Amino acid sequence: MPCCKRPRARAAPRAILRQGPEQPAIDALLAGLNLPICADPGDLAAHGVAAPTRFAHNELALDLARDPGAERAEMRRTLSRLRLPLALAMLGLVGWIAATMIETRALDAQGLAYRQNAERILRQVMIPTGPILDIRSQVAQVMDRARNASSEVESEARPLDVLRRAGAVMANHETTITRVSYQPGAGLVIDLQISDFAALDALVSDLRNAGAEARVAQSVTRENTGVEAVLAMAVTEGGPKR
Question: Taking a C-beta distance cutoff of 8 angstroms, is the pair 203, 173 a contact?
């Protein structure tokens, strides 16, 4: 069922200000509505209504001589003057972004080429097999191992130095040297003949006291020749300084 909305009732005016001659018909209508009629603006205050004033609603701000179309035209001219600088600025921004992207790609390509070249050199020189993950760390490890190996080689006495120390000690013992050789890892190897095992033990003890790390690699008793022995020697780091 359709419903009808009633119009919202408006509040009746507090008073009516008449300007001009009396109108009996209108006055009778207003009297029937119980609306007071004031002929002077000062009488409105008695009914709680402020007296009307001229231009109280900022009417003077309305300039009928001003053309709104002229303002729009001026704005269009201003935007037209700014069009070229804005276009140039946008073009410059686009060019800068493009140059930055090109430079970034070039740097990425250069970095990739450097890494590939470094990996190729590492394969040839330092890391022939295995994955290459962290070049800096892996190169540091290889160099550390190389330095440690070099230090071990430098700390090992030279064969002639070992022979010189051993010869100075053997000169005080009755020995016959049959062969002298050098073997990596074993050091200086001396084949000799000596009277007995007690003399051999005394010789080894004197060699150790002289700073040579001597050990009996092999010994055997021979008739009429005493004891044949093989000594392996290396100079210890704690030995006497030359």
Answer: yes
Task: Select from 56, 60, 59, 20 the least CA-distant residue to 37.
Answer: 20
* Pairing assessment for the beta strands 16-17 and 37-38 based on DSSP bridges: parallel
Q: Which two tokens stand for residue 148?
A: 């440690």
Cα angle at 232 between 191 and 163, to 5 degrees? 75
pLDDT, tens digit (0-9, with 9 covering 90-100), for 174-220? 888 888 887 776 678 888 888 888 888 888 888 888 877 888 888 88
- On whether the pTM is more than 0.90, the answer is no
User: Is residue 15 a contact partner of residue 47, using CB atoms and an 8 Å limit?
Assistant: yes
How many C-beta neighbours within 10 Å does residue 127 have? 17
Residues with Cβ within 8 Å of residue 84, at least 6 apart in sequence: none
Question: What's the 3-state SS for the chain?
Answer: CCCCCCCCCCCCCCCEECCCCCCHHHHHHHHHCCCCEECCHHHHHHHCCCCCCCCCCCHHHCCCCCCHHHHHHHHHHHHHHHHHHHHHHHHHHHHHHHHHHHHHHHHHHHHHHHHHHHHHHHHHHCCCCCCCCCHHHHHHHHHHHHHHHHHHHHHCCCHHHHHHHHHHHHCCCCEEEEEEEEECCCEEEEEEEECCHHHHHHHHHHHHHCCEEEEEEEEEEECCCEEEEEEEEEECCCCCCC
End-to-end CA distance of the chain: 126
